[in-house]
Amino acid sequence: VANEGGKHWTVNEVRALIRIWSDKSIQQQLEGTVRNKRIFEQVAARLQKFGIDRDWKQCRTKYKNLKHEYKSVKSAQDSGSTSKSMKFFNELDAILGHCTMEQASKSDNDESERPPEWTEAKPEKDSVG
Fold this sequence. Notes:
Strand content: under 5%
Structural class: mainly alpha
């Protein structure tokens, strides 16, 4: 995968990025905004306080990649597959898991429009599929 800036993110750098991303005010700013350069400039400035030298583009690219990877792992899990996983899934689930459900319920007040898996709680099967 080609990285902007060419330098791979270390585990500590990703952890620091996720820690900043988990800040409620950052999440609220990122929610529903497309032009988010200023937000990622703030994120980069906060990373610099941890001694991590990343520009806003690198932060935004890493954020997008993590978000994309999270969504693909999450949808694989939702369809019953356990083969896909990622390193920071639990941390990202704490950030993204709740907001995707909130957004879905905000845009969709009619109970009958919801996918059946939201209304039917099925017990987990032990079979590996």
